Amino acid sequence: MMELILRDGDYVWAEGQGLRTAEGAEERLERVLFQLTARRGAFPLLPDVGSQLWRLTASRSSRREDLARGYVAEALAGERDLEVEQVSLTEEDGHGRLTVRLTWNGEPLTVGLEIGAGGG
Fold it and tell me: Who contacts 15 (Cβ-Cβ below 8 Å, separation ≥6)?
């Protein structure tokens, strides 16, 4: 299976080849990034798509990392052969960096997301 690659809400073009696709571990990372950055509930016909990470900035800072773990687990629950190993959140000056360490088919994968004042 191949997944189309998205960056900042736009499909990525491969010059002279059309839309860029990903396979294997890169495909899985694209799926994970989409699930974590899409707002859960934004697709009425697909209510389980996306995450609630955007809610982090409205939460007390002492609870954010625990909430992030739950939001990541919820968003990725439907991904086959994928295990969430670690979720960590570092914050400074109202902005944060969420790092998610995963294992897919025995292969370690890492995803990093910026979490800012405007949401996930």
Answer: none
Three-state DSSP state, 110? strand
Q: State residue 13 phi and psi, 5-degree precision.
A: -95, 140
What pLDDT, in 10s, does the model give residues 84-105? 999 999 988 768 899 999 999 9
Tokens of 112: 């990093």
Q: Please state, in angstroms and rounded to a whole number, the distance separating the CA atoms of residues 84 and 97.
A: 17
Alpha-carbon span 102 to 110, nearest angstrom: 6
Per DSSP, what are the bridge partners of residue 101?
86, 110
CA distance 42 to 78: 17
What are the pLDDT digits (tens) for 22-53? 677 778 888 899 899 999 999 999 999 999 99
**Cα 79 → chain centroid:** 12
Selection from 25, 29, 22 nearest residue 3 by Cα? 22
